[in-house]
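ASSEMBLY PREDICTION REQUEST
Request ID: AP-0331
Submitted by: J.K., bench scientist
Number of chains: two
Total residues: 233
Priority: normal
Notes: Please return the full assembly, not individual chains.
Input sequences:
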Amino acid sequence: GDSVTQMEGPVTLSEEAFLTINCTYTATGYPSLFWYVQYPGEGLQLLLKATKADDKGSNKGFEATYRKETTSFHLEKGSVQVSDSAVYFCALSDPLGGSNYKLTFGKGTLLTVNP
Amino acid sequence: DTAVSQTPKYLVTQMGNDKSIKCEQNLGHDTMYWYKQDSKKFLKIMFSYNNKELIINETVPNRFSPKSPDKAHLNLHINSLELGDSAVYFCASSQEGQGGPISNYEQYFGPGTRLTVT
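STATUS: Completed
Returned structure:
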């Protein structure tokens, strides 16, 4: 079945540091890939997405590129801020694999940014 | 203004009780979902409904029964609550489109309901 593996947290960085959160996936078909963010006490929000190989999703300074050859979708940001502290989830949907009506999530990575 | 709302936000109850969580979306979406987030933040789909029809039931015990009275509502009723049911439950919705609702359209999540079973 489909699965998403993302780097274990927690990740603690200083403000303006470079961020990478690794995400790899296995899927039956050709999935769409997503990063969701959950701020403390809130629900999830879509951060960015990519629907086909070599697409780059970007939002709020975050980027991730859909790499089919390495089955990866790593999240990066050049300079993190305290306000980026949150839990980040990598996820996929896999229409050809029959899961176009659900998201399969990774286990989440807690990011803490210190001033 | 709230896109996806859930009530209650917090629910504390004893083992063996029956409780319901309500979800409403005002986005005009056709598809709604329930997810469970455990204490380690792991998120897993429970149910998805499209146009009031059950699409996914992801090996959830029969004690959990979703009900969709109309496209804008998806409620979750839980019978005979157990300690292991303690979690945060998230409702979500998305618009249906070509290729399935998720590939092309964002899922909007509610704020969550924190259920504590004692």
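REVIEWER COMMENTS: The first strand of chain B starts at residue 4 and ends at 7.
SIGN-OFF: pending second reviewer
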